Amino acid sequence: MSKTQAGQLRIVAGIWRSRLLQIADVDGLRPTSSRIRETLFNWLGPDIRGARCLDLCAGTGALGIEALSRGAAEVLFVENSRSAAATLRQNLSSLDASGAEIVVAEAQDVLAVSAPSEFDIVFLDPPFAADLHGELCRLLSQRAWLRSGAQIYIELDKQKPVPRMPDNWRIDKDKTAGNVRYMLTTNET
After folding, report:
1. Phi, psi angles (nearest 5°) of residue 145
2. pLDDT digits over 119-132, tens only?
3. pLDDT computed for residue 6 by the predictor
């Protein structure tokens, strides 16, 4: 975990660079480390400016907040834990963030039932033990949640196999750090 001190993590860059976020005390909550966030946003580069982002299984919201800090137009945060969502809401409020919406629900339920809205960038980082990666990838593709050329960031336990991805997704970047494997894919349709 990339904690600056117990219960906090630091935003890496952008307008809120070095600001601290509170971390909810929720079992299994595993914030993406600052090192991985820095690499991810270097990969995304200028594509983040003005992007519509979807942060599935948002947890702390570190990925979506980092995106907003770096110029994303909007982020839809989906988190099933009411406690984590409440802390995320407080963090967004303390930053006076605009362009953020929080939905408290299971990610797979939102993707399966809600009216799809196309996103440019998706952050897919479900709890490792939940084994949701394959299902969430399938729903994102089949239910038309992605713009053509959308980028999907996937974070998983490095001991687990890469989830089955839709045929039209291409893995562009693939790295490991500690026990985490993370990759950036592109929707080619």
Report:
1. -90, -5
2. 999 999 999 888 89
3. 47
